[in-house]
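Hey team,

Filing this mostly as a record. A colleague (T.K.) asked me to run one chain through the structure pipeline before their review meeting, and I want the input and output archived in the tracker in case anyone asks later how it was produced. No errors, nothing strange. Just documentation.

Input sequence:
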Amino acid sequence: MSARDELAELLQENITDSLPVDPSKAEIHDQVGTAVDVLIAAGYRKPSTITTAEEIRELPALTIVVYDDMANGGLLQTYVVPDDGTVMFRTCEEFHLMTFGGDYIDAKDMPLPLTVAYEVTS
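Output structure:
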């Protein structure tokens, strides 16, 4: 199933459940198709999950990933892939225009899984 089809299915389920009257399938299909096209044009992309160090190394430079361990009492941490893509840059403070506060961490030592929050595209 393509990302567009998956998004359309999700929207169709939610639109159908939220309508007070029972519209025709054609009406729902048209509404969903329009909504999906608008969302994709606006840059929607399903967040991807990174589960290996090799996947970290394949990410484009300046990709932002998140490690969320809050359910286990841990931290929510944000990382940026530097221009070489081989190590991660952990941000301990807010991002600044020219400098970052943090430490370089080898990809093999990163906590996993990571969720891609922003990926630079060409």
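Quick notes for T.K.: The longest strand covers residues 64-68. Confidence is low (pLDDT under 50) at residues 94-100.
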